[in-house]
Design brief:
alpha/beta; eight-stranded mixed beta sheet; 8 strands; 39% helix; globular; binds adenosine monophosphate; binds zinc ion; binds fe (iii) ion
């Protein structure tokens, strides 16, 4: 079982890297990628745990990016980077800037939320792992602790969603630039959960073909089509696009911990052939296999 998308408490997951690997083992996953948001800080601990438990580990990052659609609408795009060189400064410095901006963005959201709910940045800061990449889940956890909602998911559905008056978008790097940096770092780029923000009812003609063509021309290597948040009506379209451009196609869970999100380790899988393509193409870092 190959699962190439999972988070730890180095970003917004709930498991430590060691716990993640233990849980992957229990779930029957044989090859797992650690893909925390905008950081490589969990790799080392995950590699140690993977070595002792006999799990294959693909070090990765889920890079936060922004793209502008041809109609001028700005969208958030997550790009998975597999096996990039973690010492490649041009990429690492952009990730550090994103992590920094995620802190000020979270603080701005807390300022807005604090008008209506009993939460504070100090309380949130004391509850997250120092140095971890901050996201809305940290705010969701504070709302749970304050008794406003019962779970993270409820906080996302009722208060923290993108259309909410408390929502502030993070400042992150342009998608095209991220794809080029990942490739310059010797990594393989795969778009995480493509079209996650598109209404399930959107017509195929309304999907942003030009946006995908632009990213593929910039060097995008693959699409994570088998992910629970990819709209079912877009999957054939994405599959045809992948076929046309000979892209890598993956399937993964996007696990954030059992209480973090409903996604379960191994709920979607990547084929051994596609993993081989990633391994064959990456030149930035060695996998722990
Ligand atoms: P942000 O990165 O700050 O925009 O927050 C979005 C992140 O929260 C994504 O990585 C989601 O996968 C993550 N997340 C974690 N738990 C949940 C949940 N229960 N519902 C929705 N998103 C979640
Ligand atoms: Zn996340
Ligand atoms: Fe994501
Ligand atoms: Fe993710």
């Amino acid at each position: 079982m190959i699962d190439l998308h999972a988070h730890t408490n180095h970003s917004d997951g709930l498991d430590s890297p060691t716990e993640l690997i233990q849980n992957a083992k229990t779930a029957g996953v044989s090859v797992l990628a650690i893909t925390d948001h905008d950081t490589v800080s969990g790799w080392e601990e995950a590699a140690q745990a993977a070595g002792s438990l006999g799990i294959g580990l693909i070090p990765g990052i889920e890079v936060s990016t922004r793209a502008e659609l041809p109609n001028g609408r700005g969208i958030s795009v997550h790009i998975l980077a597999y096996l990039p060189n973690p010492e490649f400064e041009p990429l690492m410095s952009r990730l550090a800037a994103t992590r920094q901006s995620r802190v000020s963005r979270a603080q701005r959201m807390v300022d807005l939320l604090a008008n209506d709910y009993p939460i504070s940045w100090d309380e949130i800061a004391s509850n997250i792992q120092p140095g971890s990449t901050v996201g809305r889940p940290a705010l969701a956890d504070a709302l749970v602790r304050a008794g406003v909602v019962a779970t993270r998911s409820e906080a996302f559905e009722s208060i923290l969603h993108r259309k909410s008056k408390y929502y502030v978008s993070e400042l992150s790097l342009p998608t095209v630039e991220a794809i080029r940096l990942i490739s310059a770092a010797g990594g393989v780029s795969v778009m995480a959960h493509p079209l996650i923000d598109f209404p399930a009812a959107a017509a195929v003609e309304d999907l942003p073909a030009d946006h995908f063509e632009e990213l593929i021309a910039a060097g995008l290597d693959g699409l994570e089509i088998n992910h629970r948040a990819v709209p079912l009506n877009a999957r054939n379209w994405l599959g045809e696009l992948a076929f046309k451009h000979d892209l890598i196609v993956t399937g993964s869970s996007d696990y954030h911990g059992v209480a973090g999100k409903d996604n379960r380790l191994g709920e979607n899988e990547t084929s051994p052939e596609m993993l081989e393509r990633i391994l064959g193409q990456a030149t930035g870092f060695d996998p722990f296999l």
